[in-house]
């Protein structure tokens, strides 16, 4: 759906990243890391786009990226990053190097939409317009070619679907009613991105732009969007291995798993409602890839682990003549360190998509997500090839 | 290197499999399994070629395959299979179903070339001719369209290279000297395959057809060959995961591993000389894929494990901002159950290659091997694609 | 509480084992194994009492033990054992050897108390008397010195406590009311053991003899009892390791775990109610030993695993200067093969306790249980010592 | 062998710890940690003696301990500790708190005995006297009641035994010959401890005081000694679990293991000679506890792991009716953080032993060692009980 866009040649210009959940662990890590990389203090390890063919695709440089965002917390990014130093995740040296950049970014953080924000009396339309104004003001003040909104806010419980979620016109009407809150918070932010004409990525499993009415609006208004739920650790590993078993004609009987994590995400997911969104996006791809639906999965809040995520998987497989084999994996990583470079990748790639005039869900960005919008492909190797093909063609579109 | 072959339309005809090491664990399992599948007693789980696009490629059917081979042991395939029942690897039901087929195959086993076979006084040329005669007699008696030789004999120590190993003419001369034994046993068998005009696969890490002079002879005499060292378990898993880390721009710092196994292969590899061949073919691909040469690896003979291979890997990876992540994997499988279906695949695919008039190393069969001949590709997903592309094109060649 | 019993010298006489749940996996395995050991077809590996100091304690010999029991299933022990052969757990050879003994034991199986057994109109007192009559008839017909009842029936959900559960007199009254079912099924069986004057062991986490009123009756009527919930795998391992960390003054921060299993027990525990009993008895000891209450634990029904139980634990520990260490364990075993020898041990040891005139809960048998009656000790090494001390002293009581 | 010593009441006085290898990782960590604990900046987690019954045994307080030592490196303890901060092992806060104490301790470091120390022309007797003089000068300058020497220097290769190693008189003669170097470096240090009248602990697997002639001299001259090779991680875990399997009458068939580590110790053990000492002390206890000699074990130098030691064990066990179970463990810890608190424990306990007039090997200190001197007990739980019994009785001896 590429248009012969007037946006051409513009992907490499100054670009804004607007984090919803800007003061969270992932956003703070991404901001700190961006500064460290831009200043040459750290190599861009973990950034997919720091390799060929992406480096020749005319993406915005790390030095071209400017950070701002929304949050409902008053703990600053700098303070958050300092905590991450204390847990041993972030090296003190890099925190020191990025200190001023964190302060600058945090000065760009505006109050987000708080679903528990008290009476208010404001309609969701008004709220979204306020959020959109924050984004356009950010774009204008920094003379940015474009802004990419990345949702990194706390995971919400699954949403009860309403008729308005499927019907753009009905939705727009409902939004103006101050007595109603037809959208979950993540979708208010997504709608604000549409209003601001900003590209959008959903790194969380929350509804966000995933509601059909919003996706349709995005398509109509020329906004490229990508989602959903960052595929960073255990799920990524599963989508690497499951296709390999299939290629060997080995039959997965069951794939059981457990996740242990602390930190902000651990605390959020200790809520049995919130965790449902996450569990369902985590198992969908696996069932698609293996054909087995015996995939028990748990996420436990283990506060003493801090930002470390430990994931154990047990795969039970049938082979030749009914023989059985088992594969166990244990993955241990700082969760935000996995997510942050992919977030920077998404910002760079959606800037290209926007410059190329692409609108609506970009299926080739499925590489980054547990539950890819616009695509049924979960195989990590296949997604990697599709992504490389896409970037070459989008780059050709922009820089012919 | 496909020739417009007179062999056309012939791939699906009756085909012989000639195992070097026919009475070993893998060969006996493959023979038993072939019978069970051919008789509809077991599905072809674990056979790559039992899936699309291979099922439409006109490969010989399982019912078209006839087994014979060489060995230097007097323990029959039936007896060997019975032991595998006792260890719990093979279900009694399938052994019963395959009993007669095992007896028939074992009746086709002829004495192999024994490097410690006493004075003899026979030149290696004479030995190879004897082995070749066994193969052609087998082909003629069973009216086979062709024979594929698969080396499944015990792993040999690495060979000290001699000038004759690089020079076909010098080699042919040396072979006629009864006082010399210029070739290791596996290469005598490989040379016999050439003399018999049989396709050839090296499932072991032994020298086999890997000596340059023999590879050149194979090419000249129109024999398709594939090798080397079956990629069935831990190494396969590594070549699945390592490219995935690379696609994420995550930097593998070290990849340490240990293998525990018993059985015949465990006993052979307890010899520090023999194990050198195996260790070197196991790490070559990993270093190529990761760029790291910190890859300590061990193979331990643990007789109480029988045919079970347990492999543990510890991968230490650098991510964003110098952060570290670890992945551990534990793989536990009956080794011969992994190898046997791939051996049947190779026989079917090399029959196609032969029918298509392909000669010399077939790089696209690299999917099956730790140390692929004619190819530098180790990435399992990439090999899978290449294999599928190849089978389509070879099939088109044979059945236009 | 040892009495100068007239039972002296009698421990080694013929003894009955009466399994509640006689046709289940553990009971069938124990019966098969007992026959195999008694007939010299298998060594008593896994039986604690087959070692010193137990072998000198005058326990009943394996050849002195006779099996009967209650069940509500009509699938015979022989049939059940045959299934266990098919899954690969039991060697065909031993099944053949034990075939007749299984048939004989199954002929001693009587209908159990079925809580969903339809209208009936029978009071629980009447039911328990019927069960007790089965036990005494078994004892008389086989001229047994005594019978030990071992509860191996399906795990029940936790019981809502009623006043009668604490008050023997009130309980006895309530039992006679045909309109009430004051006891869960496991406790009806426990009460039947009391009526029959049989020693009793609770290998399940169900209420059983654990209700205070029943425990008191047992004590009054001279019945030695032991429980609760067999400590065979993951929990045993935890009670081995946790005290070792404490001895090193290393501080357990969290101890997370997951269990995967299939089989009858897996299916039962897939019920969220039933699993509550099990989860609570599994974590109680751990919290006592480590002081940490961050002990998330799951039990997943994975039918393809059959009787194999796979348990993964992740232990996060604080050491010197706040440093962190992790220990992961993966345990994989045939669950019934772990339980069965301990069940035979319990029968032998409770026979001794009965002969020694011990009544009520025997704390020193806590070694065998997740939630030991009459004891707060969970440390496996300490329990082992206590058990050895007890057997010496009980033996001296019986054979002075 | 306790004497009614005039040393009574003296255990709690100011005590010196003299580290051989004072600038190594373990010694620097112990020194830093001692300062942090003494100043109340960190709790004594990981110190066995910080718990009952040790806290009532009149051991020297942490504030009573003064550090000095020998080394052949010129990199100071402070610098070494700084490196440990950079690898993330030591928190910056504690380094800052301990900075001055590290400087003070490093000022007490004297040149050790360097076996490759050039021509010299000095006899080993003269060298040992020089080392002893360093120790006595340290004791006198700080007015210490006693000094405990703890060998923490790099692991040496196994020693070729000479007749002098068994015969004190012959040894004393050989030591005076400037042309001979009859003792390895670790034993020169051990002899120096004897000359200085200092208690001695061998935390390394090097020969040290383990040569019979030196052990005899220690006994004669009233020096309590303890060794050998600190039991801190994988080996400790094995001696916790192996006795538990035995108590269950479960039969260990094989126990395979791999260790990955970097740091100074990793580099030393990359030498195939040096690693032999370590491997042999690591497997001795395991074989004794399990009866199995199938215990393949590896130690790999993986520099990127720094001071982290990762150890994987695979235990294959036979249970009831020949069934098999497996236990795998993965241990990941900062090696020096495990060792350092035990080193402080040993200093405190040997001070008590010295005050109690105990001489020669103290078998009850076997708890701390892979290869305990004077004892065949490897069972960690049994060693823990023995240690507690010993400290009570030694304390009673000193403070009646
Ligand atoms: N590897 C990974 O870290 C990973 C992978 C996939 C998805 N995710 C998702 O990314 C998200 C962020 O993870 P995190 O670890 O940074 O979590 P976090 O709890 O540290 O941060 C979430 C932030 O969102 C803010 N927030 C909450 N509600 C908001 C609202 N209505 N408007 C604006 N801000 C709001 C919070 O105040 C907080 O600062 C989570 O949804 C998580 O599930 C993370
Ligand atoms: N997953 C796997 O099982 C796997 C994977 C890769 C490679 N391999 C290789 O496959 C080979 C076979 O493995 P296996 O487990 O069946 O071993 P095995 O020891 O059971 O069988 C080897 C057989 O080769 C025979 N043999 C030895 N020297 C011979 C000679 N000179 N001529 C003819 N026969 C000879 C032996 O008598 C024996 O019957 C080994 O080299 C092994 O390394 C196996
Ligand atoms: N390692 C172990 O196997 C282990 C460890 C601890 C506890 N346990 C407990 O042992 C018990 C038995 O385990 P299993 O694997 O043999 O289970 P199973 O499901 O195979 O057998 C249970 C048997 O109990 C019978 N039963 C159910 N209700 C009954 C009743 N009211 N009266 C009489 N019989 C009844 C069933 O018909 C079945 O035959 C379970 O409670 C389990 O939790 C087992
Ligand atoms: N968990 C553990 O850390 C652990 C457990 C058991 C045993 N150990 C043993 O403790 C010892 C110390 O380990 P580390 O990690 O501190 O090693 P390290 O390499 O960091 O330190 C060894 C120190 O010894 C010094 N040294 C070498 N030769 C010497 C000599 N002749 N005289 C005096 N000093 C000398 C070196 O210069 C170095 O400073 C090793 O032998 C190790 O095997 C450690
Ligand atoms: Na999708
Ligand atoms: Na208790």
UniProtKB/TrEMBL annotation, chains A, B, C, D:
Myo-inositol-1-phosphate synthase GAPDH-like domain segment(s): 233-336
InterPro entries the UniProt entry points to: Myo-inos-1-P_Synthase, Myo-inos-1-P_Synthase_GAPDH, NAD(P)-bd_dom_sf
Domain of life: Bacteria
Residue ranges, annotated region (Disordered): 109-129
Record-stated family: Belongs to the myo-inositol 1-phosphate synthase family.
Record PANTHER family: MYO-INOSITOL-1 PHOSPHATE SYNTHASE
Entry protein name: Inositol-3-phosphate synthase
Native organism: Promicromonospora aerolata
The organism's taxonomic lineage, starting at the top: Bacteria, Bacillati, Actinomycetota, Actinomycetes, Micrococcales
